[in-house]
Amino acid sequence: MIYIDVSAELAQFRNFFYNSSVISYPFFPRTSVLGFLASILGKEHDSYYDEFKNSFVGICLKTPITKEIKTVNFLKTDGFKKNFHSQMKMEYIRSSNNERLTYRIFYEGDNEDRIIEAINEGNGYLRYMGTTECLADIDRYEKIKYQELQGGECYYIDSIIPTDIISDLSFEDDKGFFHYEKNRIIYNFKDGRESLGVVDILAETKRLQIVATLKKSLSFKVSDILTVHGRLLKIESGETVYVF
Fold first, then answer.
1. What is the DSSP string of 187-215?
2. First-residue to last-residue Cα distance in the chain
């Protein structure tokens, strides 16, 4: 398994289910993570779905976040109404503590060594968080070891997790309230950018840890014909991460 720390000033992960607006997910969606990894390898858009279909991915927020609305000016450069300006309000994600917005991506799959090599050699395309306006940097990356954990117990979890594997959720502890946010994402695409199914995801956006008792089974269904067998891992750095 490898991890990659990615940082930027802003992110904009457009919500797949809002066609007429630009609402952003607060976290790196799984499909965006796979696209990010594919860009490191220099893969063309929508050409990598089959290659990454058996991958395990985990996503951690490493800085508390806030959302802000910005008005963006678009210029039409060809065709009818050339040079016509239009404005649109966009929701962006940024860090709430004056640091760079940072996410940690965990990846386990066939391309681990190729990704590390590509980063070392500076290969691939420009990195960005969701949209090309949000250029990103890779701050740290390395191979890591882990221990697999079992479900049925209460954990402090450092990553996003599917709501379907939660048996009970803590909303406060001796440090105060948790700031949970639930969003529905596409699990993955297949050729033709057709959805393989959806999953509801829980993230903690301020304290960056979810406190939950998990079901004994860590699997969840994304469609009537596809069940995802996720895993809970204790990373050697001390983090508890769900990968799926």
1. --EETTTEE--EEEEEEESSS--EEEEEP
2. 13
**64 Cβ neighbours under 8 A, 6+ residues apart:** 95, 96, 97, 205, 206, 207, 208
Specify whether the CB–CB gap between 11 and 79 falls below 8 A. Answer: no
User: Which two three-digit tokens encode residue 95?
Assistant: 């860090």
Cα-based angle 29, 26, 173 (whole degrees, multiple of 5): 115
Q: How confident is the model at residue 151 (pLDDT cuts 50, 70, 90)?
A: very high
20 band by pLDDT with thresholds 50, 70 and 90: low
3-class secondary-structure state, position 115: helix
Prediction pTM value: 0.91
The verdict on domain 2-66+84-243 having CATH code 3.40.50.150 is no
